[in-house]
Design brief:
Helix content is 13%, strand content 27%. By secondary structure, it is α+β, with helices and mostly antiparallel strands. The strands form two sheets. Strands 1-2-7-6 form a four-stranded antiparallel β-sheet, with no helix packed on it.
């Protein structure tokens, strides 16, 4: 027996016309093959976009929401894209030098009406280590058009600790 005999869609049973399997008499190996492919597709769909789908799509990946971090001498600015959410759906926490963004994205419709969805719903939490001391009393957060911006001013001590190193050629 060769490997080609194990591939149901390439078999032609000695005829020149390949065998076509109908739904009512489907080969169990072909059915298993399709199901395994579907499971892998469901798990790995979205890895290119940074947000893999895990089964029913109710869990967000560790990379959501997408953030942009800028670090200047005086402040750190974190911008997070959270489309479809409102400010009441998001919580911003700062504890021990870690900025935490968490919340929940809820579905707008009932599951019984949905035939197919590539949208993601459920709770999310994103932790961002800051690495420097920030003035917690002056931290500011704003939300506009699905974009959350958190401005974290550095303490005077953190601003003076920056040391420039000369590059030698």
């Amino acid at each position: 027996m060769s490997v080609r005999d194990l591939i149901p869609w390439g078999r032609n049973n000695g005829n020149q016309v390949p065998t076509v399997l109908r739904d009512d008499d489907r080969d169990p190996f072909l059915s298993l093959h399709r199901e395994v492919n579907r499971l892998f597709d469901d798990v790995f769909r979205g890895f290119g976009s940074g947000m893999p789908s895990l089964g029913n799509g109710s869990a967000f990946s560790a990379g959501w929401p997408s953030v942009e971090i800028s670090d200047t001498d005086k402040e750190i600015k974190v911008t997070a894209e959270v489309p479809g959410l409102e400010e009441k759906d998001i919580e911003v926490l700062l504890n021990d030098g870690i900025l935490t963004l968490k919340g929940e994205k809820r579905s707008e419709s009932e599951d019984k009406d949905r035939q197919f969805s590539e949208r993601y719903y459920g709770r999310f939490e994103r932790r961002i280590p800051l690495g420097v001391e920030v003035d917690e009393d002056k931290v500011d957060a704003s939300f506009r058009n699905g974009v959350l911006t958190v401005t974290l001013p550095k303490t005077e001590k953190a601003q003076t600790q920056v040391k420039r190193i000369a590059i030698k050629s």
